Amino acid sequence: MRTRIAIVFLPDPHTSDAPSGPDVLETNLPPGCFILDGETTLRADDRKTLPRAPARLSGTHLRAAARRAGAQAATHLIFIHHGASSSTVPGIHKLVAACQAHPEALILGCQPATLRTGRRRRWLEEKIPRFWLNMQTGRRLTDPLGALRIYPLAVIANLRLYQRGMLLNTEILVKSAWADVPFQEVALAADLPAPCLDQPSLWESVWRFLLNIHYTLRSVLPVPHRKLVPSGGKTGAKVSVWRPMRSLRTLLRENTSPKQLALAAAMGVFFGTLPLIACHSLVIILAANYFRLNKIASLSASQLCMPPVVPALCIETGYLLRHGRFLTEISLETLGYQALERLYEWLLGSLILAPLLAILIGGTTLLMARFAARSMATVRNFKPTPGNGAGR
Per-residue pLDDT tens for 72-111? Predict the structure, then answer.
């Protein structure tokens, strides 16, 4: 795929001067790039009248720039802030090279950790977005607040974007990950130009927190996300704990390794054993999403811990730890009036049985998954010959 990248400059919101980006890139324009609505070589009189995007981007501005770029046969879009200098040019060239190698991906510029040491506030500002992005999408990025990005026009045109400013960057990352758009990070050696925005107000901080909660809850809803990358026509199959081998073969066809299935099953059993009343499924889905494990395998394995067997074992273990003997009396007194004591004993017993059951179920799943994977490989490699009776 041939790439053609449109460059849009973001001005300084605190001054009316023209951005310095055209001056910097005038003689260092990367191959396959052009300045949106401008000429490759700019005259001094043209720089102040160069069409520019607003400093505080919104989804509407982004789509408008994408439409203008598409009208000039562009395939990608990059925004460069007003602080671009000569040290930024090599980074832009690296981003363009990565875009040409991965035209379907969202290219993200990031700084190595050595350039971010000693800045505690920025470290905290990056650590929190990394946590939220991992929780919401299962993706891990080095620098989710990177200022240099190359957007495929198809992504911008098909995503529903409602936020503005820095929240727009978060919205694009989350919804692109949900749409199965690949990310490609490029390490940049120089300091990146950052948007010169005002300190966020209390309301903006609260809104960012609520927005992250909204994305987290949306990620666990059993409603499919809008996809931009075709799934290849794969059809789903039912997964049930009562048909383990067939379910394991179904899950192994989804590019899941036996080790991942074993970890997912162990995690599902671990949380299923704990007394997380009325929120087992939610906790399991969130944990599987964070650790990028198979949610269906975790939920299916957790069904092994349904009442009454596993909770009764936990209560008996907890009662044994507290009183030195097993609970043998089942009555309204022990199960009704002493319900809080039984709940506490359930918690105590689960702290012992949850790791043991997780190891047992995880190990069993690993052995069964490896056996299923080996049998599937044997079937795939089977070649009928006249001597084995094939074709009769």
Answer: 889 999 887 655 566 677 888 888 899 999 999 999 988 7
Say whether both 273 and 186 belong to one domain.
Answer: no
Asked if the structure places residue 232 within a domain, the reply is: no
Same domain, 186 and 248: no
- Residue 260 in domain: yes
162-174 residue pLDDT tens: 888 778 888 999 9
**What does the DSSP 8-state code read for residue 164?**
B
The number of folded domains in the chain is 2
Same structural domain for residues 50 and 182? Answer: yes
User: What is the C-alpha separation between 334 and 353, in angstroms, rounded?
Assistant: 22
User: How many CB atoms lie under 10 A from the CB of residue 387?
Assistant: 6
d(CA 10, CA 50): 11
CA distances from 63 to 57, 107, 140, 159, 262 (A): 10, 18, 26, 9, 43
DSSP assigned state of 192: P
Indicate whether 255 and 199 sit together in one domain.
no
Residues 188 and 252 in one domain: no
Q: Are residues 111 and 260 in the same domain?
A: no
Please count the residues of the chain. 392
Helix (H), strand (E) at residue 9:
strand 5-10
- Is residue 349 within 8 A of residue 313, CB to CB? The reply is yes
3-state secondary structure 41-102: CCCHHHHCCCCCCCCCCEHHHHHHHHHHHHHCCCCEEEEEECCCCHHHHHHHHHHHHHHHHC
- Mean pLDDT over the full length of the chain: 77
The neighbouring-strand residues paired with 34 are 6
Q: Which amino acid is at 51?
A: P
Whole-prediction pTM: 0.65
Alpha-carbon distance 20 to 31, whole Å? 20
Whole-number pLDDT of residue 125: 63
Same domain, 207 and 262: no
- CA atoms of 378 and 233, how far apart (whole Å): 24
> For residue 115, what are the domain limits?
5-220
